[in-house]
Amino acid sequence: MSIVSLPGLKRMIEEISQTHNLPKSSVQQALREALLKGYERYRRAQRLDRSHFEEDYFDNFEVDLDIEEEGFRVLSTKTIVEEVNNTDHQISLHEVQEVASEAQLGDSVVLDVTPDQGEFGRMAAIQTKQVLSQKLRDQQRKLIQEEFEELEGTVLQARVLRFERQSVIMALSSGFGQPEVEAELPKREQLPNDNYRANATFKVYLKKVREGPHRGPQLVVSRGAAGLVVYLFANEVPEIEDEVVRIVAVAREANPPSRHVGPRTKIAVDTLERDVDPVGACIGARGSRIQVVVNELRGEKIDVIRWSPDPSTYIANALSPARVDQVILVNPEGRQAHVLVAEDQLSLAIGKEGQNVRLAARLTGWKIDIKDAAKYDYEAEHRKIEALKAASPDIDETHEDEEEAVETLNLTDSSLEDENTNLEEEE
Question: What is the pTM (predicted TM-score) of this model?
Answer without folding.
Answer: 0.68
